[in-house]
Amino acid sequence: MSKPRPLSVGAFVLAALALVVGGILFFTAGTLTAKHVRLVSFFPGTVAGLQVGSIVTFQGVPVGQVTSLGVRITQDIRRPIIQVDMELVPSRLAVYGAPRSREDDQVATLVQRGLVAQLVKESFITGRLIVELAFRTGVETSRVGGTAVPEVPTVPSDFAALAKQLQAVDIAGAVESFQRTAASLDTLLNSAELRQTVRDAPATLAQLRQTLATVDREVAAFSRTGRGVVGDSAVALQKTLTSVQALVATLDRESATTLTAIRGTLGRADASLDNTRLLLDPQGPMVSQLQQAVDDLAATAARLRKVAERVDRDPAVLVRGR
User: Fold this and answer.
1) Which residues, including other chains, have CB under 8 Å from residue 70's CB and lie 6 or more apart?
2) What per-residue confidence (pLDDT) applies to 166?
3) Rounded to a whole number, what is the distance in angstroms from the first to the last CA of the chain?
4) Cα separation values, 317 from 198, 299, 302, 312, 313, Å
5) Is residue 293 exposed (0-12), middle (13-18) or buried (19+ Cβ within 10 Å)?
6) Residue 130 and residue 114: Cα distance in Å, rounded?
7) Would you call 150 exposed, middle or buried from its count of C-beta atoms within 10 A (0-12, 13-18, 19+)?
8) Which 3 state secondary structure label does DSSP give 70?
9) Most Cβ neighbours (<10 Å): which of 16, 95, 245, 267?
10) Domain end among 94, 122, 156
11) Phi and psi of 7, rounded to 5°?
């Protein structure tokens, strides 16, 4: 077996290294040589699962990575916070419609518009975390300030928010209330009254069945009686309707006769009124004759008055005559 030549081995190693470098440059799309934008965020809670090299995404799109992790402790050592330094690739996060400016100014503009960072589970199996960037408004954010690089405010992760809500729940009170409820239920189940009620349940059910059977019989009897009453009422109502119809027919006939008599009476009354108008008419013959008679009576009365005056002056006139 011939020994390998050192020149061949060296050439093979160089070719392999060239392939590796070319693959890295191909799959990173030039991010190794691109200028990166440095960011920083401060998380008040634990970041267990986050490590250097973790991905930074913007709504699921990888835009950078975590470069370092550190701890900041306040003076009172009551609020330790975790500093997370990140680097973004500007070519993967472009801002359209805005004037060209430095990357730091662009990040500051995005933060003013609501850009925040949040820890998100990359995998529930491994428990690894990533940093998710997104625009959110109307949420409570955490910010430290006073940094040399642009700071992105943070919001609690979903698990942190859930843990905070659980902290507000009075678990001890809930457990105590559950224990009291269980004790009350146990007392109720072991009470003599409940046992007696359970023993009396068959007799009570039998009595209830008997009562229901009695009610069924009474309802059936009442139904038969009710049907008879309804039938009698229907017959009586039919008779009443027949009588009413006969009465209406009689009234129709009587009304026709009465109307005829009324018409005759009204005709005679009209004739009498006509005669009365003739008698009372000033130009009529009756009034003229009456006026003539009255005039004759007046003339006769005047002559008699004259005779009476002459007799009164000279009674001998009765003997002589004229």
Assistant:
1) 82, 83, 85
2) 53
3) 217
4) 149, 22, 18, 9, 9
5) exposed
6) 19
7) buried
8) strand
9) 95
10) 156
11) -65, -40
Residues of the chain below pLDDT 50: 29-31
Distance, in Å, from the CA atom of 225 to the CA atom of 227, rounded to the nearest integer, reads 5
pLDDT in the model for residue 138: 77
Is 304 among the domain residues? Answer: yes
pLDDT of amino acid 86? 92
- CA-to-CA distance for 90 and 297, rounded, in angstroms? 148
CB 45 within 8 A of CB 129: no
- CB under 8 Å to 67, separation ≥6 — which residues? 38, 52, 85, 86, 87
Give the end of a domain, one of 113, 132, 156: 156
Nearest to 129 by CA among 150, 153, 160: 160
Write out the residue range of the structural domain in which residue 118 sits: 29-156
The bridge status of strand 81-88 relative to strand 37-43 is antiparallel
- Residue at 73 is within a domain: yes
CA neighbor of 72 nearest in space, from 47, 55, 107: 47
The strand pairing partners of 151, in sequence order, are 40
Question: What is residue 52's predicted lDDT score, i.e. its pLDDT?
Answer: 92
Six token digits for residue 299: 């003339």
Tens of pLDDT along 134-168? 888 877 777 787 778 888 898 887 665 555 555 55
Instruction: Classify residue 19: in a domain, yes or no.
Output: no
CA–CA dist 23, 2 (Å, integer)? 33
Count of domains in the chain?
A: 2
β-strands 81-88, 61-72 pairing:
antiparallel
Closest CA to 43 of 149, 146, 131, 108: 131
Spatial contact of 256 and 262, defined as CB atoms under 8 Å apart:
no
Instruction: Tell me what pLDDT residue 56 has.
Output: 92
Whether 271 is in a domain gets the answer no
Q: Round to whole Å and give the CA distance between 312 and 205.
A: 136
pLDDT of residue 102: 64
> Cα 298 to the chain's mean position, in Å?
106
